[in-house]
Design a protein that fits this description.
Blueprint (H helix, E strand, L loop, with lengths): L14 H21 L4 E6 L4 E6 L3 E7 L9 H31 L8
Helix pairs in contact: 1-2
Length: about 110
């Protein structure tokens, strides 16, 4: 019966190499997450009557409402436009975050990222 070397069970990689790569990936993930604060996305609704901006780390940074969108007789329409613009901006922010984090993880399905 042949004896295996110390690293044989992990495709030839020793535990020290695995830990070094894991630390490097952790540092890259932290840098990518920090960078999401600087990426801004925007969305609009109602033909541009309502505009929303957000960062890729899911923080709303601005809401602009055209005064013509304010109709005291139809507040529900304005509420719907704001909701639509916010949801679209957050969806865009999530897409950007997923792309940037995926670039770091190489497509690994790491929970919570």
């Amino acid at each position: 019966m042949a004896r295996r070397g110390m690293g044989g069970g992990m495709g030839g990689m020793n535990m020290q190499q695995v830990m070094k790569q894991a630390r490097k990936m952790q540092e890259e993930l932290e840098a990518a997450q920090e960078g999401l604060k600087d990426v801004e996305v925007s969305a609009s609704a109602g033909g541009g009557m309502v505009k929303v901006t957000a960062t890729a780390d899911m923080k709303l940074t601005g809401v602009t409402i055209d005064p013509e969108a304010v109709d005291p007789e139809d507040v529900e329409m304005l509420e719907d436009m704001v909701l639509a613009a916010v949801n679209e901006a957050l969806a865009s922010a999530q897409d950007v975050a997923s792309q940037q984090m995926g670039a770091v993880t190489g497509g690994l399905g790491i929970p919570g990222l």
